[in-house]
Specification:
heterodimer, A: 215 residues, alpha/beta, Rossmann fold, 6-stranded parallel β-sheet, 4-stranded mixed β-sheet, 6 helices, 12 strands, globular, B: 724 residues, 4 domains, 35 helices, 18 strands, 11% strand
Amino acid sequence: MMAYAVDKEERPEVQLFRQAAEKVSAVVVQVATCDQAMAYAVDLCARKEACQLLMAGCESPLSPAADQLCGNKQQKVMAAPGLDESSRAALAGLCEENGIVLTGRPLRDHLAGIDIGVTWADFGIAETGTLVIASNSEELRLATMISEIHVAVLPVSRIRHSAEDLEAELRARMASAPNYLAFITGASRTADIERVLAIGVHGPLELHIVLLGDA
Amino acid sequence: MQEAKNLKEYRKTVGHALANDFLRQAMDNFAVAYRTSRGNAFSGMDVADLVAQVAETKDRALGELDQLYAQFKQRAEAIGIRVHLADTAEAANRIIAGIARDNQVHTVIKSKSMTAEETLLNHHLEKEGLTVTETDLGEWIIQLRHEGPSHMVMPAIHLSRHQVADLFTEVTGKPQDAEIQRLVKVARRELRQKFVQADMGISGANFAIADTATIGLVTNEGNARLVTTLPRVHVALVGLEKLVPTLGDALKILKVLPRNATGQAITSYVTWISGPAEYGGAEHAQKQMHIVFLDNGRRALARDPIFAQVLRCVRCGACANVCPVYRMVGGHQYGHIYIGAIGLIVTYFFHGRDKARNLVQNCINCGACKAVCASGIDLPRLIKEVHARIQDEEGHPLQSTLLAMVLKNRHLFHSLLRSAQLAQRPVTDQTHYLRHLPQIFAREHRFRAIPAIAEKPFRDLWPQIRPQVAKPRLRVALFAGCVQDFVYPEQLIAGVRLLAAHGIAVDFPIDQSCCGLPVAMMGEKKAARSVAQQNVAAMDPARYDAIVTLCASCASHLRHAYPRMLGDDPTHGANARAFADKVQPLSVLLNDIVGIDAGSFSPVPSKSTVTYHAPCHLCRGLDVHAAPKELLIKAGYDFKPAGEEETCCGFGGTYSAKFPEISAEILSKKLADAASTGAQVLTTECPGCVMQLRGGARSQKLSLQVEHIAETLVARLKKVDSEK
């Protein structure tokens, strides 16, 4: 596990965000640079256990149709739509070193699932540990839905206290249609069987939030 | 889905549910866990203020529903959404089937929508030859079992992991272990393949924001995101009452909805969609987005002066979570499609009188739903209003008409009670209980011993026991209520002693009658009003500092229902409001108004351990929580709090006669909880609760002694000068 030094004291809002996100089992780490964020994601993928080469649920007894979609995945796959050129280049280099495929194909070709989706987050809501992600791009949307681990990079300067504090910004985005805006808080969850919490029913099994400090 | 044809049949299905041990255990665990998680989710917040804001927001939107719809439609069409308005459930289904036909759709995936349950959309689409798959885990499970939901948020809460494993074994053709985490992963894989194939996705919406034509979806699993993204056609079916003016309004509701529903600060996903977003599927295909708004009686309801508030409902399901009856019988017996208190009401409006007739009678009137409602809907009252409306439409049952007739005439009512006292003598066997149940009480009433009518009612004893208070600090009128007057006069005598000992002059206006709650519960609104007028005329509020009662149900009814029923009455209105303002429960008068302290009681601590049952109409009806317990401690008792102190005892007046099996089960839980404190005495501040709890303790041969708090307190009273 890589460790990153946290250089200065966290703003109260950042602390609140971290606590709230961790409460819903998100993993929150802090980094100083974009490159470190990319390195974190690749490291996570490299450490993902070998048995998880199988997509979540594929080890279970399934109907023939569902089993077929499991197919055979030979390599770990990451996707990172919406990153700027330099971040993507850094990520591509690290993936190659670690034998991970950074897919360039449309994610509709990967609907069975990918290992990790890396995206940027537009805002954080401290009160609830929520990420706000403008998801107009279908690629970006799918990366946050079909990945088993979603890694979201959130600049700490983008953290606000409450959703109400973001109202004007969100309204402006909604007014420019079409618009698909996502609030994401923790991993996909259900309690539909005997009210027992189970993570990863349709979306990611894990959510990692990489706080990018004000350098 | 509740479809019993008459009350007898309904009671039979309820009986089956009561015998389902898994269901009972699951519901019990849920009821207790929910209280804690909701409390944590709202910790440090002003819940009442948040709820008031939701109510205000929804009321404002409902007042301008047509304008909001027009605004939404105009904006939506400008950004490429096709908007439809369906007058009825059938019309909504036809519109959606038409969209499917126009787009050569074969397979449909759905995310959870109570509105689609309301219209029975799946049945319709399947009849049209479409393959429809629910993708919310709970909805998928019940779809595979051909059942309706048993909870609005957790539709499969009635099923065990074993039942789900058996079902998934059938679906996959492979044996499945009853291990929840694995079953969830199986669903993930099975459903993922359905997502990949689907031509059309159907969602509901929690919000429809008019100014930006945005729909908001509040979910945990993430299936709604796939439903709205993968297929080339997205249809959202939305009840008109989901319209709000702006995002700010939606955020106000979002603050309360998940906290109240599942004890979450927010759900995993909240998705805001404004128009058909980028689509990368089949080449040359464009994403299509349709919104079908459903009226189905909503626009008329929004204009109804009494019932408009039911459209405030945000479908959090909390009214079921806290309902003592739901806890006993589960959702399939406690709603037609919509479940819980709100379900009892909207069934009448959305699915008709036939489906609602039996359901609306199964409310015990404990007020737990009202206290927890995310938008402050007066649910128990509206359930009674629906009941009354159905009776007015169909004719009143004989029993209810008779009771109404008798209660309207105090002399007739009281002489009937007196002759009943004489008639019961052969069956009381000189005890305070009826040893053999008279004809009107069937076998299922034996869960509790029924008390006998007292030899002399309080009103006959009054001239002898009336205390003289020299220089009174307060003058109060005692409102006795029929149970204490005719069954438990000793409770009133204890209460009068407590009052006199503290320098309070007590008057007992002899023309008072029953408070009228029993007839109100039976949907006899005219009789309830007539009795109220008699009582207001019987005691002039101007002459007293307070009108004190030892019965929580009377107190709550006098305080809240009298001004509502008589407030606009030209002759009684002003008096009724003044009367209601003066009503005080005994504990509040002694503890909060007079402010008595430990000095009133014997200085030697009592050896008795006491626990307390909070009557529904005291803790929720009048928001009195601390006063009775503070008095017990001041009186020197070793007080043991009970975990379910504020849970209903199962009495509910006429309810326990109508649904004795449910009443008995609620009572058993209550007594077990009280007994688990190890207390010797269980005390409470309502004669109805005493009747239920004491009768149950006796039938179950528990050593627990059940008392009215007046009796518990008077036993510890220090002799004061005026009494020497």
